């Protein structure tokens, strides 16, 4: 299937590709990946990248490789995620090493949420946050998501469910700050 | 939604197509069962889905991968076969798994033979191996029926697998083993000796 490309002021959301593997594997090899199932070996990371790609044809949506437009570097893997066993379709974000603190997760996730609502017709979405992952929780809050409860996953353990504002909330509720 | 650019192969009894969303329950049933013990299983629901997605992503990354094996007439699935080379694999592998209730009818032989021919003739592979758990006797037997032989000097994945090296394209071409495979498949499809009926008591 054709994976759409989306541009934001500083970022380009595009299909993941083989060339992303070194940065992707470096993230999963690092301690920073501990909130999303890592650290992982190179072999596990390779399968994860293959899974990111296969998610698109299986679900009709998935996560994008987010490029820093100016440098062409891989800044993150961000988008829509719904493997079997997930509570419901999720909006997720992983920033690659060295791209924290620039607001990139929020910028890309807002574009991904807009795509889910406008192009896919989703009426709601959540983000799952590991309880110790303050940076990720802050992104959810900045996007207007509210804490809804806990979810227990067989592999990832306990995760917080953060519910995003619906399309109606965003248009009617004066939430332009989030869009 | 089908993945892009996965070729389709037709054989005597089978059609090999890219893995699709509607085939996932069949995959999950086998990979969450004891049958998958030689393929890193049994897997839980989440792991099975992640692996299934990776089977599709493998095609996008390498341009080859595993096909879903369908019955040409009924379209039901019997297993998967094709090429496999995730990170950590020393060489390109020809791999297969047959659902437990579809075993014993020569489908794995027919599918892997077609897949190997495709890789050799359409994608220019100059050889292939199969990494097999030494306890997986069914798979070892299939590798040998395909003309593969144990290669004791080849690098393994992690030391727990035996490497079976397939005949090269030149060694396979018009060889006795290739004709033998064709003959075995044709006998599965149209047995020489058919039971004329069933004993009544």
From TrEMBL, chain B:
The segment(s) forming the N-acetyltransferase domain are: 13-148
Q: Name one Pfam family in it.
A: Acetyltransf_3
Name the domain of life this protein comes from: Bacteria
- InterPro entries named in the record: Acyl_CoA_acyltransferase, GNAT_dom, N-acetyltransferase
How is this protein named in the record? N-acetyltransferase
Organism of origin: Parasedimentitalea denitrificans
């Amino acid at each position: 299937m054709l994976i759409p490309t989306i541009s934001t002021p500083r970022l380009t959301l595009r299909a993941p590709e083989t060339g992303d593997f070194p940065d992707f594997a470096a993230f999963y090899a690092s301690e920073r990946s501990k909130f999303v199932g890592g650290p992982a070996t190179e072999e596990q990371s390779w399968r994860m990248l293959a899974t990111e790609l296969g998610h698109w044809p299986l679900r009709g949506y998935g996560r994008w490789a987010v490029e820093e437009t100016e440098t062409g570097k891989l800044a993150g893997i961000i988008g829509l995620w719904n493997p079997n066993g997930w509570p419901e379709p999720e909006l997720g974000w992983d920033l690659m090493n060295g791209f924290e603190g620039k607001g990139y997760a929020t910028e890309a996730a807002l574009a991904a949420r807009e795509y889910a609502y406008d192009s896919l017709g989703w009426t709601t979405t959540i983000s799952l946050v590991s309880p110790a992952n303050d940076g990720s929780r802050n992104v959810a809050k900045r996007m207007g998501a509210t804490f809804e409860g806990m979810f227990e996953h067989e592999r990832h353990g306990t995760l917080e469910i953060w519910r995003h504002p619906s399309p109606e909330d965003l248009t009617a509720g004066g939430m332009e700050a989030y869009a | 939604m089908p993945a892009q650019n996965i070729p389709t192969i037709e054989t005597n009894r089978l059609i090999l197509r890219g893995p699709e969303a509607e085939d996932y329950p069949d995959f999950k049933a086998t990979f969450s069962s004891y049958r998958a013990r030689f393929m890193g299983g049994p897997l839980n629901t989440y792991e099975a889905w992640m692996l299934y997605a990776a089977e599709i992503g493998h095609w996008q990354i390498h341009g080859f991968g595993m096909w879903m094996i369908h019955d040409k007439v009924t379209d039901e699935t019997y297993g998967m076969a094709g090429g496999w080379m995730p990170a950590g694999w020393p060489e390109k592998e020809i791999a297969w798994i047959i659902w437990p209730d579809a075993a014993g009818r020569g489908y794995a032989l027919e599918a892997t033979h077609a897949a190997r021919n495709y890789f050799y003739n359409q994608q220019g592979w100059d050889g292939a191996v199969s990494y097999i758990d030494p306890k997986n006797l069914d798979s070892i037997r299939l590798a040998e029926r395909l003309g593969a032989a144990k290669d004791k000097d080849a690098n393994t994945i992690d030391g727990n697998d035996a490497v079976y090296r397939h005949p090269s394209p030149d060694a396979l071409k018009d060889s006795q083993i290739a004709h033998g495979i064709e003959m075995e498949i044709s006998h599965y499809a149209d047995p020489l000796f058919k039971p004329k009926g069933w004993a009544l008591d």
